[in-house]
Structure formats: C-alpha cells, structure tokens
Amino acid sequence: MRLTVFWDRMNQQFGEGYAASVAKDHVMAALGGRTVEQALADGEPAKKVWQAVVATFDVPSKLQ
C-alpha cells in the first residue's frame, strides 16, 4: 500500500482534520505503543499501519 492510499483511507474514515489528529495523538497497542506518525517515521509499511488502524477502530469493510 502506498502512503497516498493510506492517507486517502484515513481521510475517508476519520475526515481530513481528525485523521491528522488520530495519526499524531492516538497511541496504538497494535503498533507497539506508537502513533501512526511514529510508526511510519520508523519505517513501518503503510499496509501494516493501516491494519493496526483497522484493528483499533471500527473501520467499514469497504475501506479494509
């Protein structure tokens, strides 16, 4: 998954403003206690990070 696809899905799920907040502020156990921003900065693949978002939030199947 490319980062552009990742951010498109984040924006669809949360809305543009809230997606940025979730990425910056929400620490996820599925990411080893990191935020989306931290995980991506650490080099985690966007697909793995998206899977963590799906596991953490109620994401509709069309975005999974």
Structure explained in plain terms:
- With about 60 residues, the protein is an all-alpha fold.
- The protein has 4 helices and no strands.
- The protein has helices at about 5-15, 15-25, 35-40, 45-55.
- Helix 1 crosses helix 2 (about 15-25).
- The longest helix is centred in the N-terminal third of the chain and has 12 residues, at about 5-15.
- The radius of gyration is 10 Å and the shape is globular.
- The termini are close together.
- About 15% of the residues are buried.
Question: Strand pairing plus helix content: what structural class?
Answer: mainly alpha
The biggest beta sheet, please? none
Gap from first CA to last CA: 12 Å
The tally of strands reads 0
Low-confidence stretches: none
Rg calculated over all Cα atoms: 10 Å
Mean pLDDT: 96
Question: Helical segment tally?
Answer: 4
List the helices and strands and how they pair.
Elements: H1 3-14, H2 16-25, H3 36-41, H4 46-56
List keywords for this structure.
mainly alpha; 61% helix; 0% strand; globular; 64 residues
